[in-house]
Amino acid sequence: MITLSVDAMGGDEGLTVTAPAVARFLQNQADVRLIMVGDSAQIQAALAKENVPMERVEIVHASEVVGMDESPQHALKNKKDSSMRVAIQQVKEGKAQAAVSAGNTGALMATARFVLKTLAGIERPAIAKFMPAAKGHQTLVLDLGANVDCTPEQLLQFAVMGGQLVRALQPENANPKIGLLNIGTEDIKGTETVKQTFTLLRESNLNFIGNVEANTIFDTEADVIVADGFTGNVVLKTVEGTIRFAGGMIKQEFTRNVFTKLSALAALPVLKSFKRRLDPRRYNGAIFLGLHGVVVKSHGGTDKIGFMYALEEAYHEAQADSIAKIEQGIAAQLNKSE
Amino acid sequence: MITLSVDAMGGDEGLTVTAPAVARFLQNQADVRLIMVGDSAQIQAALAKENVPMERVEIVHASEVVGMDESPQHALKNKKDSSMRVAIQQVKEGKAQAAVSAGNTGALMATARFVLKTLAGIERPAIAKFMPAAKGHQTLVLDLGANVDCTPEQLLQFAVMGGQLVRALQPENANPKIGLLNIGTEDIKGTETVKQTFTLLRESNLNFIGNVEANTIFDTEADVIVADGFTGNVVLKTVEGTIRFAGGMIKQEFTRNVFTKLSALAALPVLKSFKRRLDPRRYNGAIFLGLHGVVVKSHGGTDKIGFMYALEEAYHEAQADSIAKIEQGIAAQLNKSE
Questions:
Q1: Is B278 an interface residue toward A (CB < 8 Å)?
Q2: B-chain residues near A240 (CB < 8 A)
Q3: What EC number is given for this enzyme (chains A, B) (predicted)?
Q4: Does pLDDT of A335 surpass 70?
Q5: Do A229 and B183 touch (CB under 8 A)?
Q6: B143, B132: one domain
Q7: Which of A24, A98, B49, B156 sits CB 3.0–4.6 Å from A314 for a disulfide?
Q8: How many domains are contained in chain B?
Q9: pLDDT tens per residue, range A253-298
Q10: Domain CATH for B214
């Protein structure tokens, strides 16, 4: 049985999204228990409206909610009984194997670091996400914004953690391929930091396959792509903007006149399937890596489908016992270089 | 009459691409003359196969060609009679208003800097490109890879040059909106360099509209987006990769079975129009900004259509007398801060 703790109040819509998502998730997964953290009366009321197997739900009261624009410092100092913090506390106390929140990223990361502490050998936790890819292959990209200025050593740590997470989730993949996001494939490309990281990765015992250019992120053979949080975040958002742009253009073309509208009718099943495959909700759920516990961050503005995918992500990680494997990886691959 | 000089030998395919592109371009534009630079016998032979108004073509012989993988240093030192260098020389000597080359970016930039020299007040030239955007609006993004590590002062210089280029090309747009590529809209976001650049831009007399996130590059109101060359290049390549990925997925969905193939037939005109609008060849032609002369870089692997668009880009810039306007802008907007 897997137990996840859920920040029931987090995100733009709070329980309006988390309650139906939780209901659906519990229907899908039989071997899971949830600890719903937040205002207990509100949670009770919201769950009563859904078809929820209450024998697998525990409600833990928390009297505060971290605002979506609240600063990490303010949340840490003044919201000691926030739903976010108490949800993470459940992981710390061993009552849950993973916590999920749609709360604000900065506060969630700060709280997770404060409560769970960073793994030995890791200077800074990172945010990671699997990107959709052609041929069913998925590539984990990190960091996606936790650390804007990174040292080469930190980027190496990201590579180690990313590789171990892939190993944990894909046991058949014993030696994940690590790529370094760069603006060319030659060794000499990139900023000073990126060049030094290239050297560190080449000297490591990771399966380093060299530089990966951003135009190949959807068809690279790399299992992990390492970048600083500024660049990683830019990649993620550029993908999001480009897909929205291309989708809008398809729509524009199909609604241009009566003939194109007729052809859209004919193409409807295909267009729907296309839209479904690129649906950002299916890729919701970013993983905080480098902590003594699993924390998954849902997009703050997602709906119940998106939040359900974030719960799925946490479930798979908890099942894979990823933290233990990451700790082993750090011991094997980083300590020797210290 | 506008005169452009063309590195006839540059690019993966050399004259196979440049000769037919030149023929088509001359047919489209009546008020243009071309100086074709390279092996004169080969140029003569290649142009003879095309329908070219030879009275508007001058051939200037150059005995060498810079290789696509040749280092900038090697090209500068050993290829003093290269088609690339002699083409740029035409601009230096006032014989042409702009040079176009599909040769390798590093060598082209180094040669352009060496021959044309950098404008006073500009430390480093940048590479700029207009991105397609919704509603017919176009956004100039720079730097796209000339300078991987940038200071805040250099980023401010890019903003000034970009703004002046937009003013030159769009005379009705007297005060172009400048955005700073960042990972959030709040002032406090970004790397140290980006934060300092934010302050410089806010204190400048540019029309600075604040941070722009990468998910809005296709629908931002910004006329210019400023980034360091590493980030800018990553954005450009992420867009390229994402469009290819989405296009491949549409194709996959439409060829899934006999029904989807039939609907593809019905949707064919729409799909073609969609494909045409996102055709990267239509956006070929990156502008080198910050030199005493216009140099446009075509993608090395493009075809005749793509190379023709690079010629069009150079033509519009030469028409707009962009260099003079950029020099004025530097005098008005940068010198005061020195």
A1: yes
A2: 215
A3: 2.3.1.274
A4: no
A5: yes
A6: yes
A7: A98
A8: 2
A9: 888 888 888 888 878 888 888 888 888 888 899 999 999 999 999 9
A10: 3.40.718.10
